[in-house]
Amino acid sequence: MHHHHHHVHSHEHHHESKVTDSNRIGWAFWLNFVFTIIEFIGGWLTNSVAIMADAVHDLGDTLSIGLAWYLSKLGHKAATEKYSYGFKRLSLLGAMINGLILIVGSIWILLEAIPRLFNPTMPVTEGMIVLAIMGIAVNGFAAYKLSGGHSMNEKVLNWHLIEDVMGWVAVLCVAILLQFVHWPILDPILSIIFTLFISINVVRYVVKTMKLFLQGVPNQESRVAIRSALLEVPHVEEVHHLHFWSLDGEQHVLTAHLVIDCSVDTQTLLRLKSEVAERLTEFQLAHTTIEFELPGEPCRDSKDHLHRHSHNNEHVEIEHSK
């Protein structure tokens, strides 16, 4: 009974995350979009290259957030005949493109900031202060909206926004300091430090997303635990062709062949199936396909067997989809 309840609960959780991640990303998009326009005007009025640079950076953010929003909406569409696993992987694609836009943006900021170390100019500090306070408020609110997200997409976007908040805090500090001292070089120095700090994190995310893209194992410990759990099932003496990969970093897929040591009637088979389902419950897999191989039966997926396909194959597959 408890077991049944658990499934219902996880199902509701998925439905709830489905609604909220699109909403959260939508919020972030509109806030960013409006603020980017304000920034371009502000940068032009204050004659501050730093704010102009940030405006371009924010424009990049707005584009990638818009893309992420579109992809995350698509990602929740039901599976079709052509895309049988659904569209979850689109959000990985979004995270990947975002990461790359952010890396290109960071390189651009560095190219802007480094020459300014040698030839710093004073901006209009009062205007910078006003824009910085707005920037902290807007991006802070958007980051807060996204901080509840678990998908790779939301994590990358959250970095965008945190980077912006930190950038604006820096602009604010520099602008206040420049009210009192004439050290225009502070501006490019800070932008370089922040850009490098964020880039390192984004590169880490892009690498992780790339691994999921290439259907790498999402979590090595889970894979080992799944193998052990399957080997603990009575009558299972070997597990092979165990493939464990992820649709979007959250929803994982498992396929495996279990070699059993006894011939089975319907009762035993049903017992085996429910035992397997029971053992796999804790891993919350989105899709599992398990194949049982009977004693002495050659494995269908082994190379040498493909040549001499035996007719007395008694294959049983169970599809267990949450």
Would you mind describing this structure in some detail?
The protein has 322 residues and is α+β, with helices and mostly antiparallel strands. 66% of the residues lie in helices and 10% in strands. The protein is built from nine helices and four strands; from the N terminus they run H-H-H-H-H-H-H-E-E-H-E-H-E. The chain has helices at residues 2-46, 49-75, 89-118, 125-146, 152-180, 186-213, 220-231, 266-280, 303-307; strands spanning 236-246, 252-260, 287-293, 316-321. A four-stranded mixed sheet has the order 1-2-3-4, covered by helices on one side. A hairpin with a 5-residue loop joins strand 1 (236-246) and strand 2. Helix 1 packs antiparallel against helix 4 (125-146), helix 2 (49-75) runs antiparallel to helix 5 and helix 3 runs antiparallel to helix 6. The protein starts with a helix and ends with a strand. Residues 1-13 and 306-322 have low confidence and may be disordered.
